[in-house]
Amino acid sequence: MPHGIAAVFILSVAAAAQTSPTYSKDVAPLLYKNCANCHRPGDIAPMSLLTYDQVRPWAKSIRERVSLGTMPPWHSDAPRGTFSNDRRLTDTERSTIVKWVDAGSPPGNPKDLPAMPKFTEGWEIGKPDAVLSMDKPFVVPATGTVDYQYMMIPTNFTEDKWVQSIEVRPGARQVVHHVLVFMKEPGNTRPRRDSFSQAIPKFPGGFGPGTLLATTAPGTNAMTFEPGTSVKVTAGSTLILQIHYTANGKEAVSDQTSVGMIFAKEPPQKEMRTSAFMNPLMMLPAGAPDTAIPTAVVFDQDVHITAIFPHTHLRGKAWEYSLVYPDGRKEVVLPVPTYDFNWQTYYIFAKPLAAPKGSRLEAVAHYDNSVNNKSNPDATKSVHWGEQTWQEMQYTGINYTIDSPSQSAPATGGQ
Fold it and tell me: Is the pTM of this model over 0.85?
């Protein structure tokens, strides 16, 4: 090779090295923003991604998962901007990570590193104003089926509280599949009536032992409401935790789950309501590759829908939610073509959906009960509603506000 050509080749390589992304300047900010909340010590992800030394061994795996769009996890194909908590990377962000790995994952200049994100130990919402915990641990056996457990936690609040942020913190995440937190008001044997009626009947007596307040499941946990909206926790109420424990097959594990709350500084303009609707009459034929199970609710007041939480078990593969307006117009508001039981999401609308009185929210879940579903516990059996993961659910959590001014007595905000 002539000397001049070799010189050009060397210069071009050097120029490419100078223009390739580096960890310190380009990649670390993306990981801190999009990944560190889960990929840090003590949280749900299997490895920490807070330093170059932690990230470098996983570089090729990160490139693959980012290229496929499986990380960060997100399963709706609604247009970007529809949901405020959309985890998807932009094309530019995805390209930056891929180019960095293809260039050999250079560390870059440590002086370019952004400040390490700060986390409150154990809490996504930050330091809670109040922490309410189970009074004693529950021991989950190493093997066997554990029936749903119902744990009661008195709030001991002497006045109503407006809650801006709420989070469920399992004491042993490895054995806690999900937790539903209900609020039972003093002297009230029934949950507060929802602002909708369900097209398919609920269980006798309604769903759950009170008003649904908070949830945690793989992929979803803390909830922070927009300024001007908050949830009311009534004075003297009791929290009832419905906990689904799953034995890990290794050893008995002790759990003591807690609920953390940050109070609003003043009463809200709108009270946030949390509730659920479902189809407990569902049935999946043995071996069926695609069974659609519908349900719907009709709103009897003008409301704004702020969030939707789809939930099935191992056979669920897709969801679609449509809003049918009183004039007959129908709009798909939440498509979830690739539902993942292992990573469930509360889809929070960037702009709450206006649902005028008489509107109908339709939910259709699709299930694969065939041998082609690698997660299917047993394709030879028909499946009905049930609490355990080898059974099934068609369940939707929903957050909404009522448009008419609240008539309830004012509640207090911060301490």
Answer: no
